[in-house]
Amino acid sequence: MAERVVLAYSGGLDTSVGIGWLKDATGKDVVALAIDVGQEGEDMEVIRQRALDCGAVEAVVIDARDEFANDYLMPALKANALYQKRYPLVSALSRPLIAKHLASTAIALGADSVAHGCTGKGNDQVRFEAAVAALAPDLISLAPVRDFALTRDKAIVYAAEHNLPIVQSKKSPYSIDQNVWGRAVETGFLEDPWNAPIEDLYTYSQDPAIPREATEVTITFTEGIPTAIDGKPVTPLEAVVQLNRLAGDQGIGRIDIVEDRLVGIKSREVYESPAGLTLIAAHEELENLTIERDLARYKRGVESKWSELVYDGLWFSGLKRSLDVFIDDTQRYVSGEVRLELHAGKATVTGRKSEQSLYDFDLATYDTGDTFDQSQAKGFIEIWSLPSKISARRDHAAGGSIEA
């Protein structure tokens, strides 16, 4: 039996043509692996059959939607993960999951290599290959588009010459990647960062400028994980699906950003993540209520580093695993309810409550009954500012001054 290579198969032009190109270039039989992470669109059985029609000796389809939500999206939510403070890691979160199944499938089938459809210009090539290297270091990673110069024009010609069941226009304006956490759109006229996005770009969210009544929603969290919406129990996947609809109908979750890619270039990206941005807004506010000040301040730095590690393809790194332990520990009291108003493109928190709340009304109130002893503030300030006072005296003695 010929050696095998397992290809991460999306059903699109590049990976469909990549089946034949891999066979021609390596002499290996190609096994197509399609992972359902909630991208919707085409039926996964149609994609499986297309892989076979394009020359794969075997096509494997895995429904990983719950695994994706439980093991990848929820850690991201606990970390309030936003790369460059804005991007909720839509594509970056799916890549380690796909790589995990690539590696395990290759090992199960006795294959010595895996493959993906990424170019040599983007982040995903690094994410796939770094993850595979961490999980199965002896596997070889191949990339037909990058390694064998499979350009889009060549792919279209190859598909036509071999009568592959692929419908692809030479003038397709965008490159799109999507899953249940969101949708990423790039290329075409978006490559000029001065060009404004147009409404046709969006499918996960409605136009926020259209007048409509606001939607109120209450999300219940248990140790940082959404467990109910409006009092009805939900799984993590169900929470994301429901909030994509509720928030998306209000035009929430649109992001237009010039992004610092891992490979060193800047890229203009447009994203949609209605559930992602809504859940992060709610989760952050519940943390404000339940996490003490110094821990919350420190966690914000950890969140930034966590997001960078995941963006950079280091999901399975030692540092990321250690940060997960810290983040999980911060969530022990992040339980309660957050009420939000969804309207005109914004998810606005209007209420929060928790049995683990650190908010003390008697300390916070300015009305009669205030238990905060204001007489102690003067001495506290004296001690707090003592280092500044001592160093200022030294500066003045040395002829220095403090600029206002």
UniProtKB/TrEMBL annotation:
Pfam families: Arginosuc_syn_C, Arginosuc_synth. GO terms for cellular component: cytoplasm. Residues 174-390 form the Arginosuccinate synthase C-terminal domain. GO terms for molecular function: argininosuccinate synthase activity; ATP binding. L-aspartate binds at residues 119, 123-124. It catalyses: L-citrulline + L-aspartate + ATP = 2-(N(omega)-L-arginino)succinate + AMP + diphosphate + H(+). Its main location: cytoplasm. It comes from the Bacteria. L-citrulline binds at residues 87, 123, 127, 175, 259, 271. Residues 4-165 form the Arginosuccinate synthase-like N-terminal domain. GO terms for biological process: argininosuccinate metabolic process; L-arginine biosynthetic process; urea cycle. It is found in: Cytoplasm. Keywords: Amino-acid biosynthesis, Arginine biosynthesis, ATP-binding, Cytoplasm, Ligase, Nucleotide-binding. Pathway: Amino-acid biosynthesis; L-arginine biosynthesis; L-arginine from L-ornithine and carbamoyl phosphate: step 2/3. Its EC number is 6.3.4.5. InterPro entries: Arginosuc_syn_C, Arginosuc_syn_N, Arginosuc_synth, Arginosuc_synth_CS, Arginosuc_synth_type_1_subfam, AS_cat/multimer_dom_body, Rossmann-like_a/b/a_fold. ATP binds at residues 8-16, 117. Homotetramer. Belongs to the argininosuccinate synthase family. Type 1 subfamily. This is Argininosuccinate synthase. It comes from Subtercola boreus. The lineage of its organism: Bacteria, Bacillati, Actinomycetota, Actinomycetes, Micrococcales.
